[in-house]
Specification:
Elements (H helix, E strand, L loop, with lengths): L1 E4 L2 E4 L2 E4 L3 E6 L2 E5 L3 H16 L4 H5 L3 E9 L3 E8 L8 E4 L3 E5 L4 E4 L3 E4 L9
Parallel strand pairs: 6-11
Antiparallel strand pairs: 1-2, 2-3, 4-5, 6-7, 7-8, 9-10, 10-11
Length: about 130
């Protein structure tokens, strides 16, 4: 059983204090929101898939692309970069993602609070 209660994550009989979660960028500053059960359930399911090597190729293929990315450190870890293919943001926009939960540079994927991202080249690298 999994529940969220006022910044407490409950898994089985264990309780874990959870911080408020970075929810994206607004005006260049990270905004915050608490996570709900659906978000946690999706994250856990995605972690299990990633760990088992069973990531759905369609999910990754249809994920937004983040180019010229780097780690953004604030109240939580996030990624910063230039996005394309995002369902809500214009192509070519520089963004800071929601909180980063999973990063696999070898498979060129990242999972944030809200979605998967395909990773292009990191900041400072150029294509030949």
């Amino acid at each position: 059983m999994l529940k969220i209660r006022s910044n407490t994550l409950i898994i089985g009989n264990q309780e874990y204090r959870t911080p408020r979660i970075a929810g994206g960028e607004r005006g260049g500053k990270l905004t915050y929101r608490s996570i709900d059960n659906r978000v946690v359930e999706r994250l856990l399911a995605d972690f299990h898939l990633a760990k088992s090597g069973g990531l759905d190729p369609d999910i990754v293929a249809n994920a937004p692309l983040l180019e010229n990315y780097s780690l953004a450190i604030g109240p939580s870890y996030a990624l910063s970069g230039v996005v394309s293919g995002h369902p809500h943001l214009a192509d070519g926009r520089h963004i800071v993602t929601s909180q980063l939960f999973y990063l696999d540079p070898e498979r060129a994927v990242a999972r944030t609070l809200s979605r998967w991202y395909r990773l292009g080249l990191p900041h400072g690298f150029q294509r030949n």
